[in-house]
Amino acid sequence: xSTMSLSEAEVQSARGxxxxxxxxxxxxxTAVLVNRMFTEHPDTKSYFTHFKGMDSAEEMxxxxxxxxxxxxxxxxxxxMVQHLDNSEAFLGIVTSLGKKHATQLKIDPKNFRIICDxxxxxEEKFGGDIKASFEKVTNEICTHxxxxxxxxxx
Length: 154
Hints:
The chain is mostly helical.
């Protein structure tokens, strides 16, 4: 569906939750990539040619390229969060990212679960209420990404 299911109050509390974690976008983005994606799904490292030969989480955490990508992921989500009250703009952002990852980068859609891992980080740092207030946002993002992938034949 092309309409967002967030009320004004939900948009506000989601933004409040996001701000807490976005303050340290590079560190938190890196943490999500390294602690979750690469550690729990090591096959995902194959998408990033510059991670070859990096085995320890510590090495990855220090890598400028890993940090840069962590920040990039968080910036993209931040862009979506800024448009939660405008479904057309929000969907435009998610659609172009989804298409790029599906067609150009050929990233397996299961790797977008990393977005949901942000919830885990939120809970660890700020508790369950903060996590709960952002859950609808990650659901919207993941739902739309999945439908874009289906359209692209995945």
